[in-house]
Amino acid sequence: MQLSDVVVGGIATTVPFWPLLAFVGLGLVTLAHRTPSERTVAGCVLWSLSLSLIGSLATAAFMLSHHQDVLMVDVGPWFSTGTYTFEISFLVDRLSVTMMVLSSAISLLIGRFSVNYLHREPGFTRFFLLLALFATGMMLLVEAGSIDLLFVGWELVGLTSALLIGFFHERTTPVRAGLKAFTIYRLCDIGLLLAVVLLHHYAGSAEWVEALGEWAWPGPAAVMGVGPATVLGLCLVLAAMGKSAQLPFSSWLPRAMEGPTPSSALFYGALSVHAGLYLLLRAEPLLQRAPLASGVLVVVGLLTALHATLVWRVQTDVKSALAYAVLTQVGLMFAEVGMGWYRLALVHLVAHACLRCLQLLRAPSALREVQMRHAATQGVKPPSVAVAHHVMPEGLRQRFYRLALERFALDVLHEQWALRPLLWLGAWIDKAERVWVGVVSGWIPRAAETRRLESEHRTATEPSDGKSTGAV
Fold first, then answer.
1. Does an H or E element contain 328, and which?
2. Average model confidence (pLDDT) for the chain?
3. Rounded Cα gap, residues 322 and 306, in angstroms
4. Which of 70, 125, 178, 427 has its C-alpha lying 20 to 30 A from 224's C-alpha?
5. Quick check: 466 pLDDT over 60?
6. How many CB atoms lie within 10 A of CB 170?
7. Is 80 helix (H, G, I), strand (E, B) or coil?
8. What is the mean pLDDT of residues 256-262?
């Protein structure tokens, strides 16, 4: 490896390190019950995000100037168990560099916007701690040289997402919305976990370069059988559907707008909602060998786009309308990936992330903008582009309108078939654990004896029936 490769590899390695350092430093200070000032918290996080952006830009400039397509950076082992060693490695190519610059730039922008937006908010420090942790996870996700390290970043992004949805935890609705998003993440992340195990089994390695080939992105099809590639592809599609809120897992995204506006713009307009799409773009050599998985992507993406378009037209608040607009475009990106248009999907991703981030940041000012536009057009109603109103018959149009108002009942279905069963299972496991601990510690017999004595005491002190009471 040349000296220049070593230098740029070192720079790329520090990109996720700076926000992680800010998170650990501020977290230790907070744990010591010394709450730093807003200026200290914001300055520390913003400086770390600035250094991360500088590192991303320097890496991109080197790759462009040297016309280098792929660069692998091996940091070293994290831990070992038996014959398995978790290697920390980074893959720097066209796809990861693009996402590095986009992620670090938008994270810094959101951080600077949040300084004024969350001024004197009780959770100011908590928000910036989660922002630094999210930036770390997102950088690990897009730079990961292996699916193992990508899984670490993936989980950090999901955890911070759920915590920021429930940011205003003094109210019940945000907490329940965060819990709902977390349960959907847990269900769909089973697909990614299975993909990690299966990639080790089929390819003998978790490294992207070793498993899929060291090619400039987008590369040729992977050297793998159609069967294994299809199974792996379907597992990755399941994980991507949950993270990017595709049907039938899309009901949590509008509820995620319960969090602060900056986090909504960062997670569900710009970066987190596109993490599933990035996973599919990274695994595009597998998808080329798995036509069934690609076909599923096309069907799911188009159905999600159709569903979100219908629901978007009847929303009464701007953030919900933008949430369904995001679903429409992400669904189209899924279809583009399924049809093999990988470069188009990446360009679509970058443009859409920037646009939705701006729109969600300006969402509180949307009413003012509508009023100014209405005044500028002097009350002239803009032309309607709803073709369905002119094509569909009246009865069918009313039925679709009602379904759109009810959001196609996805909230009810997720509540009954995902959230409640998982909460019941968690409560049952907790109860079983308490009983087991009681049996081991000998607490159960004593408790049962206490309840028996109390029951006998109540029986002895209370009249058995009305007749005996009358005799007394």
1. helix 318-338
2. 83
3. 15
4. 70
5. no
6. 8
7. strand
8. 87
